[in-house]
Amino acid sequence: MVKYLSKRVFYLVLTLFIVTTVTFFMMKLMPGTPLTNQEKLSPSEIHTIYQQYGLDKPVWVQYLNYLGGAITGNFGTSFQFSDQPVSYLIFSRIGASLQLGIQAMVIGVLAGIVVGSIGAIKRNTWVDTTTTIISILGVSVPSFVLAVLLQNWFGLQLRWFPIAEWGGPSYTVLPTLALAALPFAETARFMRTEMIDVLSSDYIELAKAKGLGQTGIIYHHALRNSLIPIITIIGPLAVNIMTGSMVVENIFSIPGIGEQFVKSILTNDYPTIMGLTIMYSFMLCVVLLITDIVYGIIDPRIRITGKKG
Amino acid sequence: MKLKTLAKVGSVTLVTALGLAACGSSNSSSESGSTKTLTWQESANLPTLDPSKATDNVSMRTLNNSNEGLLMVGNDNKVQPGVAKSYSVSKDGKTYTFNLRKSKWSDGSELTAKDFVYGIQRTANPKTASQYSYLLDHVKNYEAVSKKQMPVSSLGVKAEGNYKLVITLSKPQSYFKYIVAMSPLYPQSEKAVKKYGSAYGTKSADQVYNGPYKVTGWTGTNDSWTLTRNKDYYNNSKTKLDKVKFTVSKDAGTTLNQYQAGKFDVATLSGKQQVNNFKNSPQLHDLKQSSMWYLEMNQKSNPVLKNENIRKAISLAIDRKALTKDVLGDGSTPAKGLVPTGLASHDGKDFADAAEDSNETTNDVSYNLAEAKKYWAKGLKEVGKKSVSLGLLADDTPTATKNTEAIQSDLTKLPGLKITNQNLPFKTRLTNSQNGKFDLVLSGWNGDYPDPITFLDLFTSDNAYNNGHWKNAEYDKYVSDAEGKDANNAGKRWDDLVNAEKVLMDNAGIVPLYQPVLSQVRKDNVKGLEYSTTGPGFNFRDTYIK
């Protein structure tokens, strides 16, 4: 396990290094400068500002300086937020994004497992049809459309939840639901298919022959085995949530990190672009690592050491 | 067992989340019920509270209400006394003497002329890296200071005692009174700058204030902050509001929903549909902005556009009324010329009206397709072409995209003209404009201060913002006279500027399109809000809730 984890951490660091390098040089190809009034400033003023941000040096020196800083957790200061360290910017805004993402994943996946299982158990009945329709809708309706509809119904019309902003837990309900729709629908679809497969397996027949009740069969045998492919799709779903949250955060005025990322690109805020890219890459790598570990826990036949079972 | 654990954890999370959600639903009550709190929607974050570093509207608006300069700009861009209760200008227009009132910082310390000297020097100091330092370009020795050839102490700003400030200019600047009202020239407490170091102005707590309000609750990156009454403000007894609560809401639909749900007392609308919802409501306020959108034509790299008749044809072929009414539909108005209406007036006459050609057929900003076709035919003959293909560069925002589609549709009515639209992100559009990678570009400009020169200066031959490279010696002379020999003579200077705009329009140096408005909704009980079309815009000093 330790060997496996060390190997994965090494790959994580390598991935982050490659992402940082590629993003850094691509970013330098972006047109324009981060200055607001560049044309009005004298060359010496521009030089001074560039000097302050280290932009006066050759690109490779800037790159090395950046890497050196990043290793020690110094991602520079933002151009958009004057003199604000990027690490502070990320730290102060990541909480809301993470909370929403985790809530949406947990709620979406759990609800998807339940609904998908019910659909499989009640196969070819109206219940199955209903769950299928719900999951198709969940996949096809974009999160930002759902966000606006939820906001309008439950926020403006019924006044059950706040329309926007970030305060107590009630503020998280609508954005969480908007974000949870996709993981819910994807999980439900996969779960249904897997469960149907598993329920028609020989060992389920054997369990039935042994006189085990339906609840027992489903809980002890079918559910567990159906979960394995679900774990596989959690990684990509988490990525979808990260990207989807940019729009949803904007719609619900959530002080998260997603919208800042887009704005930093539009304003050529180099340090923020870099800091957020590294953070997103790190989060993605961690999600994939966790997925692999959980994969092994759920199905002991899959040994994380790579030895034959 | 593991599956069981997973299910348990999941269920607990779900139930807890829903439970907490239900508990928290009562949290959504707004403060707007309070008679002395105004809830205000902002569409962007607050980037800084450092007066030397602010370059955006949100920072300037917050600074304008939490700080006070020598003078202030109020309704109709009129100058009002600020910390300076009076001021005088020398006969040669180069020396401004400000007499300050006794006032305090929010930490209780006394505010003196030295704080203004320090603030202005700090903005001019290259070490500060202020992006608005060019506002000081008329102040004596600024150029040498900005190039690090002279020490910052040699800047033409001196304190004579505690309550007299003298600013010396290198050449007269009749609109300097507006410049001193801007945040880069605000007083700054040396004690605070030194105390907070690099954190100065990066959080509400890392700043001191001398205005009617103090900023509270801003962590530097969060989406809400509050202006709270500053008891140390010299005019505190006249301040009516206790708090102004700012909340960032960037999505237009959400903003409207929040306003309708009573979360905001004041909010900004976006687009035709939203504005139409409030068309006959007294809550809708169409606030003119000192901005102009116009087409620049690349006269450096495209020989066709060097032809004056071609340029005139382009200008006359655009139906600005239809553009503003049917395409934008948000209250924006057709351009009369380059300088927007309501920016500046002289002897009771608005600059835009004074410079406008009232003749419908000769006016270059009228829509006259028949006349446009005549100019077009003449121009084509002169350049020896039968057809022309031009690219139209613009931003990729929904508004700019709609504009380019409308302009493309209008211009292709000119026989043989093909227009290809290119909508790019802002920074890319700007870079392409500056590098001359365009035929036609949709550009916009916001006036820095209420004087026509803030617009007319743009199209002098060597100005960095003159992307089309239109050059006209007569125009340059008028602008140079206004800034030089006539700078001290209000009447002559006005005539110079009016004539300059007439030359620009007559020569179709650029094609002005429309003046945008800020469509704002306000609850009926919000009164006394002051608005100026330039700079920070809103002033809450006299605002109250009835």
Description of the molecule:
The complex is a heterodimer of chains A (309) and B (546). Chain A is built from 11 helices and no strands. Chain A has helices at 2-28, 43-53, 59-71, 86-121, 126-140, 143-157, 170-199, 202-209, 214-251, 258-266, 270-298. Helix content of chain A is 75%, strand content 0%. Chain A has a domain at 89-257: MetI-like fold (Orthogonal Bundle). The longest helix of chain A has 38 residues, at 214-251. Chain B contains 17 helices and 27 strands. In chain B, the strands form 9 sheets. Chain B has a 6-stranded mixed sheet with strand order 16-22-15-21-19-20. Chain B has a 4-stranded mixed sheet with strand order 1-12-11-10, with helices on one face. In chain B, helix 9 runs antiparallel to helix 12 and helix 16 (473-483) runs antiparallel to helix 17 (490-506). At the A-B interface, helix 2, helix 4, helix 6, helix 7 and helix 9 of A face helix 1, helix 7 and helix 14 of B. Chain A: Residues 94-295 form the ABC transmembrane type-1 domain. Chain A: InterPro entries: BPD_transp_1_N, MetI-like, MetI-like_sf.
